[in-house]
Amino acid sequence: MPNIARPATIANDRQAAARSVCIRLAGEDDFDGWRDAARSLAAAEVPADAVHWQVGDAAGDLFASPASEALPPGNREIRVSKRFIELARGVLLHRDSERFSLCYALLLRMAEQPALIDDRADPMMRRAEAMAKSVRRDMHKMRAFVRFRSVTDESGDHYVAWFEPEHHIVRANAAFFVNRFAAMRWSILTPEGSIHWDGETLREGPEAVRGDAPGDDPVEAVWKTYYASIFNPARLKARAMLKEMPRKYWKNMPETALVGELIATARQRERAMITTDRASMTGDRTATLTALREEATGCTRCPLYRDATQLVFGEGPGDAAMMLIGEQPGDQEDLTGRPFIGPAGQLLNEVLAAAGIERDALYVTNAVKHFKFTPRGKRRIHAKPDAGEIEACRWWVEQERALVRPKVVVALGATAARSLLGRTVTIGRERGRPIELGDGATGWITVHPSYLLRIPDAAKAEEEKARFLSDLKAAYALLG
User: For the chain, percent helix, then strand, then coil, each to nearest 5?
Assistant: First the structure.
C-alpha cells in the first residue's frame, strides 16, 4: 500500500488537506499501488491537481508534509470499466512523469462520464491512448529484438540478452519470456533492471550496463549465414524495415550487422535471382536445408535431446509448395530418423493418396524434433510436448519454412498449430479456414492423424477420417 501523507493541522478540512497530499509508490511500474491510492483519494474526493505522485525515494513536493496520516474515509463509491483499467495499466508503464496524474484525472472523469472511454476526440483520452500504444509497441520491440547469447557457468548453458527499453516494461514483459523460453536458463539485462529465469523461478536483479552482457557467440556465425541465405532482395522495403526495426536495436542483433551490405547489394541480388535457373535455386535450397539439418543434430535447446535416440528433421523437396507440420516424432520415427513413418504416418499416406496429393511433393516436418516419451516397461509411451519445448524447437521450424518458402502450411494438431501461429489455439475454432501468415503464406489447421487412430467407435473414426480427407483437399486447392 503506498504511503499517503498530509499535514495534521488541516485534518478536518478535506479540500485544504488535498492541497498537499503526497503519494509514494514502490516503483515506476507500481500499478497496484497507484490503484489502491487512487481509490482512496477518489473516495475522499481529492481533486487531481491536489495530488503529488512520488516514486521510491525520489525528491518529493517541498510543500507536502512527510507525516504519515491516512486520509479521512470517504463514502464515494468509484466504478470504472475494465477497459479503463487495461488502459491505465498500459499508460502507467510509460516514461512520462505525468502518467500517474493523468490516469487519476481520467479516473475521476470516468466516474462521472462512463462514455468518455469511447471519446477519441477528448484530448486527455487521445493522450492516454497514444501513451498506451507507445508502451505496447515497446513491449513488441522487446519481444522481437531480444537476442540471447550463450555463456557457460557452473550449472551449464546460460543465455544472456541485453535490451534498452523506452518505457518501464521489463517486469510486465517477463511472463512472455518465461512462457516462450521455459526450458532455458536465461537473463535479460537492461538499464531499468534485470530479470533472471532458472527454469523454475523468476527473480529480479539490479540495473545493468551494456558491458555486462556477453559479445558474439559461436552460434551467431551460423545464424548470420542462414540469415544471409534467406534474405529476399525482391521483397525488401527499406523504409518499412527501418520503421519496424529502428537502428537503435541493431547493435544488439547479430543479423543486423549484415543489413547494410544486403540492402546495398539488393538490386544486384534481385537481378541474379531472376536470371538464375529454377533448378539451380532448388538445389541451393536443398543444400542449405542439408546444412541446417546437420546443424540441428547437435541441438540442445531443450532437455528432450537427452533421452531421444536422434533428432528427426523434416524431409521433402526444397521448393515444395505445401508443407505439413506434425506434432513430434513417435517411437518408429525416433529409431529411423524420418518423420511420419509409424502408424499415423501410414494413415496420413493413405489419406493423401485418396486426396490425389503426392507425399513426395510435400515437405513434411514436426513442431518438435525429438521424441518425448514416458517409459512403461519395455515400451515408450508418447508424451505431449510442453510450451517451452515447442518454443525451443520453433526456431528450427521457422528456418525450414524460410528456406522452403511453401505457399500453404498445414498444421496437424494443436502442437503444430501453436508452433505455426506462436500461440495456443483451439482446433475446433480454427480448423478448415485459411489463415494469413506473416511471410505471405497461407496457414491451414486440421487434426493430427494419430487422433483418428485413437477413436474407439469405428463409424465415428470413418466419419472423422472423411473430414480429415476433406481438410487436406481444401488445403491443397489453395495452391490453385
Answer: 50, 15, 35
Mean pLDDT on 316-335: 95
Looking up cell 473414426 gives 461
User: Could you read off the pLDDT of 206-254 as tens digits, one per residue?
Assistant: 999 988 887 655 555 554 555 555 555 555 555 655 566 666 665 666 5
CA neighbor of 289 nearest in space, from 397, 445, 421: 397
CA distances from residue 323 to 33, 246, 397, 473 in whole angstroms, order as listed: 50, 33, 11, 14
Sequence-ordered strand ranges (E) for 137-239: 149-153, 156-162, 186-190, 193-197, 202-205
pTM for the whole structure: 0.48
- How many CA atoms lie within 13 Å of 290's alpha carbon, on the beta-carbon side? 7
| Residue 159 in grid coordinates | 543465455
- Sign of the C-alpha dihedral computed for residues 451, 456, 460 and 466 taken in this order: positive
d(CA 52, CA 39): 15
Burial 243-271, CB ≥16 within 10 A → b, else e: eebeeebeebbbbbeebeebeeebeebee
Domains and CATH numbers, the chain: 3-129 (no CATH), 146-212 (no CATH), 218-271 (no CATH), 298-477 (3.40.470.10)
Evaluate whether 158 touches 167 at the Cβ level (below 8 Å): no
